[in-house]
Amino acid sequence: MSSTNRSAAILQSINEVVGPSSAKKPIALHEPDFSGTKAWSYLKDCLDTGWVSSAGHWVSRFEQELCAHTGAANAVAVTNGTVALRLALHLVGVRPGDEVLLPPLSFVATANAVAHLRAIPHFVDIEKTSLGIDPQALSERLEQLARKQGGQLINQETGRRIAALLPVHVFGHPADGPSLHQISKEWDLPLVEDAAEALGSWRNATHCGLFGEVGILSFNGNKLITTGGGGALLTNNDELAQQAKHLSTTAKLPHAWEVEHDAVGWNDRLPNLNAALGVAQLEDLEQRLLAKRKLAERYSNAFANLEGVELVAEPPGTRSNYWLKTLRLTDEDPSEAEKFRQLVLREAHAIGLLIRPVWKLLHRLPMYQTSPKGSLLMAEDQGQRMLNLPSSPQLLR
Ligand SMILES: *Cc1c(COP(=O)(O)O)cnc(C)c1O
19 CB contacts (<8 Å, ≥6 apart)? Predict the structure, then answer.
């Protein structure tokens, strides 16, 4: 089959699933949806009562609902996922000059949160099944260069402390949390999970973000539910949750009228307005997750008869939220796949299918090119093959 025909067949299959598209009537990658929710009346409550800012009952209710939906003992709502990550890393002890282990296949915010603390991302390869950090590659990397010295874990090559492990649950597919947790225990490394994309994703009985010390969610405009901007920390550690609340509220000491602070805090708390939007969509979470699964199933069926492509599926033993549907080009040579991908992208955008290549790998971005890294062969390979498809749950409603 010629490349042009192969591309046309893929685009036709996508249109079969999501309906017709055109340059004038494009179909986006992921869009917010408030239909069928009580968002208007909850927002009205904020305006009518004047409780619009970073205190108010919708914030506590949003946090309680997040706990109910994830099984977390604590949820702390903040202004966005990046801030949640920065706060989580700070709380487990990441300090300027430390290294944090993370995968190169992620949204830039994962590495940025590390850099915001003046710490250094250290990239470790991914596995093909979950697209998350490969536990084996991680173990080998640590064996190779990490030594325990005076109660600290030191990278022998750079002389810097390795301070945390930061896996990502990519596109909502759960990374291998149990193995990563095991490694974090062996090496005394706090485990912080970037579960920004993984609300509603589970491995066995554990929700993503709860395999280690603390995890984070994002409620940015393109996520499964959105608060406009927003994020949250999830943790079963009460002390850590208390600290998160304290530091995200300018470290203000509780008092009826005195204004006093006991640390350099941040102003990170989620406003009541945004939380109200979050509560309205959480009430619809199960339906959204069902629509997401159905959409994934339709894509998977539509691609079943095409050669050279497959839909990225949830890893065995997990339940993914299928936040983004991802097409994998199975060409033998990844650079051939990458060349073909450019053609598909051009032709898709010409007919209003706003599909996207997966992120450019983080170690290739100018600000992270000199970061330490292991062999990243699998990430390099997969990074050239993947295309994200229109994934809004409302496409099926
Ligand atoms: C969205 C996202 C973030 C950041 O969340 P914001 O709310 O946009 O700051 C972090 N990591 C990953 C993997 C994300 O997809």
Answer: 27, 395
309-311 and 325-329 strand pairing:
antiparallel
Give the residues surrounding ligand 1 with Cβ less than 6 Å away. 80-82, 106-107, 109-110, 168, 194, 196-197, 218, 220, 231
| Distance, first Cα to last Cα, the chain | 35
Q: Answer yes or no: are the C-beta atoms of 102 and 191 closer than 8 Å.
A: no
Phi and psi dihedrals of 80, rounded to 5?
-165, 175
Exposed (0-12), middle (13-18) or buried (19+): which is 28, by Cβ within 10 Å?
A: middle
Distance 209 CA to ligand 1 centre (A): 13
- Which of 100, 192, 194 has the most ligand 1 atoms within 8 A of CB, as the residue to mutate? 194
How far away, in angstroms, is 381 Cα from ligand 1 center?
23
Q: What are phi and psi of 284, to 5 degrees?
A: -110, 10
AA identity, residue 256: A
- Beta-bridge partners for 100: 121, 164
C-alpha–C-alpha distance, residues 83 and 99, integer Å: 18
Closest residue by Cα to residue 134 from 381, 387, 386, 376: 376
Q: Whose CA is nearest to atom 4 of ligand 1?
A: 81
Tokens for 72?
A: 């977390």
Mean pLDDT per 10-residue interval, the chain, length 397 residues? 94 96 95 95 96 92 98 98 98 98 98 98 98 98 96 97 98 98 97 98 97 98 96 98 98 95 97 98 96 96 94 97 97 97 97 97 98 98 98 87
99-102 and 120-123 as β-strands: parallel, antiparallel, unpaired? parallel
Provide the CA 159 distance to its chain's centre, in angstroms. Answer: 30
Non-local (6+) Cβ contacts of 330 within 8 A are: 308, 309, 310, 337, 385
In the block, which residue shows the tokens 């300018």? 250
How far is Cα 319 from Cα 293, in angstroms, rounded to an integer?
A: 10
Q: At 288, is the secondary structure helix, strand, or coil?
A: helix
Cβ contacts of residue 53 below 8 Å, gap of 6+?
A: 271, 272
**Distance in angstroms (rounded) separating the CA atoms of residues 126 and 212:** 19
Q: 109: CA distance to ligand 1 center in Å?
A: 6
Closest C-alpha among 395, 375, 324 to residue 33? 395
d(CA 125, CA 373): 8
